[in-house]
Specification:
This protein is of the alpha+beta class. The chain has twelve helices and eleven strands. It has helices spanning 5-8, 16-32, 103-114, 146-154, 168-178, 233-240, 259-272, 292-295, 352-359, 363-371, 375-380, 383-407; strands at residues 87-88, 97-98, 116-122, 130-135, 158-161, 187-190, 207-211, 314-316, 319-324, 349-351, 411-413. The strands form four sheets. It has a five-stranded antiparallel sheet with strand order 3-4-5-7-6, sandwiched between helices. It has a two-stranded antiparallel ribbon with strand order 1-2. It has a two-stranded antiparallel sheet with strand order 8-9. A hairpin with an 8-residue loop joins β1 (87-88) and β2 (97-98). α5 (168-178) packs across α10 (363-371), α7 (259-272) packs across α12 (383-407) and α10 (363-371) crosses α12.
Length: 418
């Protein structure tokens, strides 16, 4: 029979108690080891999906949905995505966000998405549009008086709530920032629950809310107060001609606005097919009989270009040489065979950074990255899957625009500082 090792070496076998002590020490040492990074019980995998999305409420491509649902909590801006390439941390505000959204953008978006509604007023001649005063979370409780609404708005604490069918304006804001134009006002989607608002605003449907710029410059003419300067179509075309040289200040209406601004506007409006600015009469395509420009008999004026005027040509008093793009809902369903090239007429160059983005082939992915910041819009539209049809439409229009630039030998210009 083989001898045990300790008998061969002359050692005494260990007592059972000693074995127990050694085992306990080994277990204690194992317990003190740090957990493996990829096994930590407190961390979710980087690819962990977000919380389940809400039911699609108002698809951007269809207008108001027919489903009824109880009111939801106010919109939240996306806060739980890991930082990635081309991003920076925004702790305490909206988490990490794309670089093309400035700190000022994010602060205004946060106010629009989460600010408490403290007052409201109708906007004359704008149907369902309400202007509301907002208080940031943590500010003093209580509703505001009508007099204090004006004070709130002058301080930049107001927003315009529009129709559910105008949610496309939120996408337009992100397109503006992705392209580096920076001419539209911050906008988010939000479900409202405030007791100050009519029921139709609190029925659970997400609506766009647009930041109210307190210093937009309006003409004193009550019939033309949606412009900072009165400009007819023929004047506009004449004004674009000297852009190849230099337009001296004081040469005519809107002469303080440099040529590059009109190029930015034309590019933006073409991608969104916004007609109610440069072509409210639908002269650049054959409109359907149900189009407002037909019902209001505006299309008939196309026969006389001298009667055509531009609308929503606005600047801010603080920046009179920079256009402000408002009412950007556009036409997501406008057919490709009817694209309005009149919007590009007279333009001979486009901003280089925007054109480079269109050429990069990454427009859709950049827009998805930007739109994820607006959690309410993202979830109500079904996330990337629900938004892709709209983004493909914009991408196809971008390719059409690039062909137009190439075929007409148009140039690009360097962007001025933001």
């Amino acid at each position: 029979m083989a001898q045990r090792p300790w008998r061969r070496t002359g050692l005494k076998p260990p007592a059972p108690a000693a074995l127990g002590v050694l085992l306990a020490l080994a277990l204690l040492a194992l317990a003190r080891l740090p957990p493996s990074p990829d096994r930590s019980p407190h961390l979710l995998p980087a690819s962990s999906p977000p919380s389940p999305r809400w039911e699609v409420a108002v698809p951007l491509s269809r207008g108001r949905a027919h489903n009824k649902r109880p009111p939801e909590p106010p919109a939240r801006l996306w806060q739980d995505r890991p930082p990635g390439r081309g991003r920076r941390q925004r702790r305490g505000l909206t988490g990490d966000a794309p670089l093309w959204l400035s700190d000022d953008d994010l602060q205004k978006m946060q106010l629009l998405a989460n600010g408490r509604v403290v007052s409201k007023t109708r906007v004359p001649a704008h149907g369902q549009v309400l202007r509301v005063g907002l208080r940031a979370v943590g500010d003093a409780e209580g509703d505001a008086s009508p007099a204090s609404l004006e004070g709130d708005c002058q301080d930049g604490h107001c927003g315009l709530i529009k129709r559910p069918g105008d949610l496309y304006e939120v996408l337009a804001f992100h397109l503006d920032r992705v392209l580096g134009l920076n001419r539209s006002l911050p906008a988010v989607a939000r479900r409202f629950t405030s007791h100050l608002l009519p029921y139709s605003y609190t029925d659970g449907s997400p609506r766009p809310i647009i930041w109210w710029a307190p210093d937009l410059q309006h003409l004193k003419d009550a019939n033309n107060d949606q412009n900072s300067c009165a400009l007819g179509w023929l004047q506009y075309q004449e004004m674009l001609q000297p852009c190849r040289l230099t337009l001296a200040a004081g040469d005519g209406p809107c002469s303080s606005i440099p040529c590059g601004e009109w190029s930015r506007l034309a590019l933006f409006d073409f991608l969104l097919q916004v007609h109610d600015r440069l072509d409210r009469y639908c002269c650049g395509f054959q409109p359907d009989p149900s189009e407002p420009c037909v019902e209001e008999r505006l299309h008939e004026k196309c026969r006389n270009p001298a009667e055509l005027v531009l609308v929503h040509i606005l600047v801010r008093k603080s920046a009179p040489s920079r256009l402000v793009f408002i009412d950007n809902a556009g036409r997501p369903q406008h057919p490709e065979e009817k694209l309005n090239f009149r919007l590009l007429q007279g333009i001979d160059s486009f901003p280089a950074a925007a054109v480079a983005t269109l050429r990069s082939g990454r427009l859709q992915s950049l827009l998805l990255e930007s739109l994820r910041v607006d959690r309410e819009l993202w979830e109500s539209q079904g996330g990337a899957e629900g938004l892709r049809p709209l983004l493909r439409t914009i991408d196809r229009r971008a390719r059409v625009l690039l062909r137009y630039i190439q075929e007409h030998n148009l140039t690009v210009f360097g962007d001025s500082p933001r």
